[in-house]
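Page 37, continued from 36.
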């Protein structure tokens, strides 16, 4: 009986609160309309780096004189697909959005939403940004093969490129120089110069060269795996190790590229696009080494980390580098029988309770990506210790 009385009093109080307060809240929310600004459509040209989303709406925003704004946020609503999967754009804490040219091509639509709340009131506005590529791009790469080896497919050519400025991967490859509708490249193919034109303004050029093939055995592994925290975010960190496995087979390293797969439950998709990965090479790492005569001059450069989503895979990334100074600039071999640190990986968790399951990608076109110094030989006897970490 006492409980029923309490429930009756509670219901009566809520009813009175609704009767007197809700109309006032509705009136306040009507005044709040426009607090986020009005919808806007923007047309921009590449190349661009960053756009301040907040500034785009500021001129159209109605002032909120009550100063009770408790929350505001930007969200990326939709965008086009590039040749390597859905486009993803990163919005910084300062409400700047980075527009990397990730291959969506010209005349593409990106939609962002800005939402503000004030007590029980909410307002939102959208910005639709149309992007036009004003300049064409050309990306050139060299592919090394052993004598007599062939390139099996177009994917093997595409794999050496970042593909960041391509609209599609559906066009044929041509012999270079290009004669449209003539000299279409067939596969398998061998040494030569080849070109690809996408459906917009962009071109790839691949030169396939034969170099020697080394009989040296090399091995890659992981070491020093640990979880870390910067006070806010959790990270998985690990060193990539490299060594020779044949006695007395040390050598000087040239160019290289590794590919990795990981658990999306731990790190999410597209770790590079969402800026969740950092790969470094400090002093003491093979790729952080300097020439003997000048500590400020590094042997290796042009480090690139990219999402590599061939075959619609969303959890593969690559890391590569080039040799910048010749073999004569450093005396000692830097790949030996002792495992040495090649680079350091740091990946931001989306769920620290999940297993990283980080492994090397080793199959098919992802193998045989290293040369000795000065690109004399391709290192084809490579093995990977794929213990999941």
């Amino acid at each position: 009986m006492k409980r029923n009385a309490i429930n009756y009093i509670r219901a009566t109080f809520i009813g009175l609160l609704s009767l007197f307060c809700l109309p006032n809240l509705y009136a306040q929310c009507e005044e709040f309309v426009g607090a986020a600004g009005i919808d806007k459509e923007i047309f921009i040209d590449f190349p661009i780096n960053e756009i301040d989303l907040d500034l785009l709406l500021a001129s159209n925003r109605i002032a909120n004189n009550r100063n009770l704004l408790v929350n505001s946020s930007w969200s990326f609503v939709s965008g086009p697909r590039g040749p390597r999967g859905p486009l993803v754009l990163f919005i910084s804490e300062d409400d700047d959005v980075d527009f990397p040219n990730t291959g969506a091509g010209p005349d593409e639509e990106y939609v962002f939403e800005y939402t503000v709340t004030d007590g029980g009131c909410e307002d939102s506005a959208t910005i639709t940004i149309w992007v036009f590529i004003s300049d064409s791009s050309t990306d050139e790469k060299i592919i090394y093969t052993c004598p007599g080896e062939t390139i099996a497919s177009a994917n093997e050519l595409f794999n050496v490129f970042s593909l960041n400025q391509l609209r599609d991967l559906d066009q044929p490859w041509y012999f270079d120089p290009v004669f449209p509708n003539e000299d279409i490249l067939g596969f398998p193919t061998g040494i030569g110069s080849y070109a690809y034109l996408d459906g917009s303004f962009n071109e790839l050029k691949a030169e396939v060269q034969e170099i020697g093939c080394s009989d040296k055995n090399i091995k890659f592994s992981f070491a020093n795996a640990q979880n870390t925290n910067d006070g806010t975010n959790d990270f998985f960190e690990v060193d990539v190790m490299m060594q020779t496995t044949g006695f007395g087979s040390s050598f000087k390293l040239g160019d290289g590229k590794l590919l990795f797969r990981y658990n999306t439950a731990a790190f999410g998709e597209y770790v590079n696009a969402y800026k969740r990965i950092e790969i470094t090479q400090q002093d003491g790492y093979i790729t952080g080494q300097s020439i003997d005569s000048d500590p400020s001059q590094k042997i290796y450069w042009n480090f690139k980390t990219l999402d590599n989503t061939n075959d619609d895979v969303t959890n593969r990334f690559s890391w590569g580098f080039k040799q910048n100074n010749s073999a004569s600039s450093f005396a000692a071999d830097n790949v030996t029988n002792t495992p040495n640190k090649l680079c350091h990986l740091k990946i931001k968790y989306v769920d620290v309770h999940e297993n990283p399951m980080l492994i090397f990608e080793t199959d098919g076109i992802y193998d045989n990506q290293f040369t000795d110094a000065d690109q004399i030989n391709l290192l084809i006897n490579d093995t990977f210790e794929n213990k999941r970490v």
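The first strand starts at residue 40 and ends at 46. Flag for discussion at group meeting. Residues 13-23, 62-68 have pLDDT under 50 and may be disordered.
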